[in-house]
């Protein structure tokens, strides 16, 4: 069952849970803001739902709360950091800031981070760059959780990719995994007792299905665009590992320390007005977005949107009506905030 919880209550409860798990007050505040904001934006799969697993990984030693990014290389507009298995959120926020600082000096900035941990909602960092006035590109490689096209076993990560276009009337932000649905989204539908809107993978008999639980059991999520998503996933994995001089998905498989432990993350910030005036660039963006939004809808009463536009509507609704949370997940996070650290992660199988 879904509950509506005031945003500030979600924020403070997550903060208490993370302090109880060993984070400093500053770390807990930063991470709680990201988790609460993600759920408020309608991405509960990587918001509140990820808190129990985050706590579990700290307890297992997969995440080192004392680990911080260390500069290990750099040249011009490019820097390379070792994340020392620190908190994925704080590592990623630091690297996004560094990419923007480099872009201020060079027009473009690229930061490659290795040996980090799960950054939760990937779009967080692209949104951050766009809201600061930069075009942002970021992606991550993960352990194998998706079959290569033509295979019946996991062989590549779903390697989320994000791109954000800064627009004064609201950034356009694409945040997508290379699978039709991320595992976190499968968990959201399973916990709600719902089928997927479209087939999202295969069951254990190899049949395409819209049953989220069956896909979680088989570990055969469907690559976005079939062979194209499979190919993109491999390319993103290799590019991240190459640029950061870090783990590939195969290395993470062999380390076997949970989701994204030891991963690489790439952050690119670009000055959008490097070769054109703000007025002409913004006019071009607005015309293009307006044309897309004016597309004739397939279904009566529907509205076509660009990536990220629905996020604002979800955010406004959450601030007015409360953040939508799964009741069982909420009870788990409340329990952790009250000192019970023996909570099982039910958001994923």
UniProtKB/TrEMBL annotation:
It comes from the Bacteria. The keyword Oxidoreductase applies. NCBIfam families: PRK13260.1. One of its GO terms (molecular function) is oxidoreductase activity. It comes from Lacrimispora algidixylanolytica. This is 2,3-diketo-L-gulonate reductase. It holds the Pfam family Ldh_2. Keywords: Oxidoreductase.
């Amino acid at each position: 069952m879904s509950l509506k919880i005031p945003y500030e209550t979600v924020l403070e409860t997550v903060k208490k849970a993370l302090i109880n798990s060993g984070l400093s007050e500053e770390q807990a505040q930063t991470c709680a803001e990201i988790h609460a904001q993600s759920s408020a934006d309608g991405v509960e799969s990587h918001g509140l739902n990820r808190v129990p697993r985050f706590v579990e990984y700290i307890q297992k030693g997969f995440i080192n709360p004392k680990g911080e990014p260390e500069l290990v290389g750099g040249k011009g507009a490019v820097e390379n950091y070792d994340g020392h298995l620190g908190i994925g959120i704080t590592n990623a926020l630091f690297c996004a800031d560094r990419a923007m600082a480099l872009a201020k000096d060079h027009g473009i900035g690229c930061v490659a981070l290795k040996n980090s941990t799960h950054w939760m909602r990937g779009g967080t960092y692209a949104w951050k760059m766009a809201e600061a006035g930069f075009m942002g590109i970021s992606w991550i490689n993960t352990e194998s959780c998706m079959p290569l096209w033509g295979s019946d076993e996991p062989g590549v990560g779903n390697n989320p990719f994000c791109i954000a276009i800064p627009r004064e009337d609201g950034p356009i932000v694409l945040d997508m995994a290379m699978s039709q649905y991320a595992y976190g989204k499968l968990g959201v539908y399973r916990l709600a007792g719902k089928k997927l809107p479209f087939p999202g993978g295969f069951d254990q008999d190899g049949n395409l299905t819209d049953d989220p639980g069956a896909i979680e059991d088989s570990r055969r999520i469907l690559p976005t665009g079939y062979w194209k998503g499979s190919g993109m996933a491999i390319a993103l994995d290799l590019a991240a590992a190459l640029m950061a001089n870090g783990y590939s998905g195969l290395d993470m498989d062999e380390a076997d320390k949970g989701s994204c432990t030891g991963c690489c993350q790439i952050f690119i910030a670009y000055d959008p007005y490097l070769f054109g005036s703000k007025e002409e660039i913004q006019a071009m963006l607005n015309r293009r977005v307006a044309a897309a939004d004016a597309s004739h809808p397939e279904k009566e009463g529907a509205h076509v949107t660009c990536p990220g536009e629905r996020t604002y509507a979800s955010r406004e609704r959450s601030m007015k009506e409360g953040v939508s949370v799964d009741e069982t997940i909420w009870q788990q996070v409340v329990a952790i905030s009250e000192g019970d650290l023996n909570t099982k992660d039910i958001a994923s199988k």
